[in-house]
């Protein structure tokens, strides 16, 4: 038996309401360029809109002009999607509360998650959306996941409940020391003062 190895998210498809409310939210609120539009090839009564969330992958939405937005929270039963999280820059993250408030969109305010800051709010159909901003940049040649696994190992070894900024800083130092060569014979911390 062999695995079916994935290499990243290709796209996520959501069931939307009418076409314009989908465009207004995904492009008009979240700034995702509307890049492609065609019929749903499995249901001729629906449209299929494609948006770029910023990394060249796709968020797609099936639309139907007879469906109207419902603002109730989407189901969170087992097997249902709890929320979608999108990465934003620190500069943007610092503006999220103000910009959601300008639109009258209720939100959670900033939540400190240790390794990232998050803000939650619902889309017009009740799907929980998270805008997240990492508190670190991975070293050259590494991904965010590389830092996270090292921070996790450090956290567990120390018996801490959740990843914090100290775990991240130590993970970053560890990854750099493993991957970056030096002419020094001793890379340990020093006090030159």
From TrEMBL:
VOC domain mapped to chain residues: 8-134
From which domain of life does this come? Answer: Bacteria
InterPro entries documented for this protein: Extradiol_RC_dioxygenase (IPR052537), Glyas_Bleomycin-R_OHBP_Dase (IPR029068), Glyas_Fos-R_dOase_dom (IPR004360), VOC_core (IPR037523)
Q: Which PROSITE patterns match?
A: VOC (PS51819)
> What is the name listed in the Swiss-Prot or TrEMBL entry for this protein?
Glyoxalase
Which organism encodes this protein? Thioclava pacifica DSM 10166
């Amino acid at each position: 038996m062999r695995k079916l190895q994935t290499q990243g998210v290709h796209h996520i498809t959501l069931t939307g309401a009418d076409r314009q409310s989908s465009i207004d939210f995904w492009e008009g609120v979240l700034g995702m360029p509307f890049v492609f539009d065609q019929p749903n090839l499995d249901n001729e009564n629906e449209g299929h809109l494609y948006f770029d969330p910023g990394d060249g992958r796709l968020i797609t939405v099936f639309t139907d002009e007879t469906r109207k937005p419902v603002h109730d929270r989407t189901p969170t039963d087992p097997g249902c999607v709890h929320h979608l999280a999108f990465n934003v820059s620190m500069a943007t993250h610092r503006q999220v509360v103000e910009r959601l408030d300008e639109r009258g969109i209720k939100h959670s305010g900033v939540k400190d998650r240790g390794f990232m800051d998050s803000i939650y709010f619902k889309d017009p159909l009740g799907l929980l959306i998270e805008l997240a901003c990492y508190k670190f940049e991975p070293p050259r040649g590494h991904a965010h996941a590389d830092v996270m696994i090292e921070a996790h190992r450090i956290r567990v070894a120390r018996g801490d409940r959740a990843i914090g900024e100290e775990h991240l800083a130590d993970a970053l130092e560890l990854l750099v020391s493993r991957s970056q060569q030096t002419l020094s014979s001793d890379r340990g911390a020093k006090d030159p003062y």
